Amino acid sequence: MRSTFTKWLFIVYVLGSGTLYSMVILLLFPFVGRAGRYWLAKQWCRALVAVMRWLPGVSCSIEGLEHLPEGPAILLCRHESTWETLAFLALFPRRISFVFKEELLRIPFFGWVLRGLDMVSLNRGSARQAHQAVTQESAEKLAKGDVIVIFPEGTRVPHDAPLRMTSGGVRLACATGVPAVPVVLNAGKVWPAKGWPSGRGQIRVVVGPAFSPRDLSQQELGRAVHEWMKDELLRL
């Protein structure tokens, strides 16, 4: 009974605070630049991570940040829940830009804020045109100092699901010449792919070594990233 109440209290907090904070951010957007908009969004994400620790009892940790290159990078990340799309802004010290599906921009408030954050939107039309558009947008964000986050499986998956990577993330790294950094997590154990957290738990994020497309072919890069992610997921 208590866990159900806590779960719904957390849902109300996320949706309520998200809507209110989005309204505040949207009002301030005309008066702040790109960096200021990101900072405002980051504060809500930090508050959410803090609330998660005591409301549903979900803590988190991140390991391997020392593997991030000082320059541009592309994170190829496992996607297990909504959690990572909310918490990553709070956990990563560098500015990140998600590659997300364009339909999200049409969601009231959330989508409007997302548009103002100037990340990378993916139109799921022609595969070739989509790759070209994402490559161009990503190159622009990388030139500004962003770290690109892409989910190579394309959608949320349960934690115990086999790793099935598409080639888009590796192709993006090769097209931009930027190191690919694999990232795994166990968020799906605590916050399911479909649903909300229903109990206490700890989410671990592990950042892997950087693989350079300048040293490896596309096939070798894809194999190296896949093998590292597969082995590390077994340890989570």
UniProtKB/TrEMBL annotation:
Entry keyword annotation includes Transmembrane helix: yes
Transmembrane segments: 12-32
Pathway: Lipid metabolism
The organism's place on the tree of life at top rank: Bacteria
Molecular-function GO term, any one: 1-acylglycerol-3-phosphate O-acyltransferase activity
Name under which the protein is recorded: Phospholipid/glycerol acyltransferase domain-containing protein
CDD domains attached to this UniProt entry: LPLAT_AGPAT-like
Swiss-Prot/TrEMBL keywords: Acyltransferase, Membrane, Transferase, Transmembrane, Transmembrane helix
One Pfam family, short name: Acyltransferase
GO biological process, one term: phosphatidic acid biosynthetic process
Domain Phospholipid/glycerol acyltransferase: start-end pairs: 73-188
